[in-house]
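Tutorial, part two.
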Amino acid sequence: MRVYARLGGTFSAWMAETHPRFPREGLAARYADHPDGNYRRLAVRDPAATPALIERLSHDPTVWTRQAAAGDPLHRLREALHVPELASSAGANPALPEDEMAAVLDRAGVPA
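Running the prediction step on this input gives:
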């Protein structure tokens, strides 16, 4: 966490938070209401984060936090597909059903 705090909102911070040994438990309780959106984003990674918290964070003022929360629950994932700054994160989420992934690619004009 000290490394993450020093790196701020950089790509290196993202690399640190996606590392398998990065702490996950307790992040929701500790950071869900943090004034910095980069920390609120961490709350999504906590396995104990409730659906209500994920839903709230999916409407966060910070785009990085909304992107982190875009995949859960599924109805929010589908909704995020139509929001420009969230569509990339939502479309890449493996929780998106295969037929909806195909529809995203069709709309983008990607050949089959």
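DSSP finds nine helices and no strands in the chain. In part three we will examine how such features are distributed along the chain.
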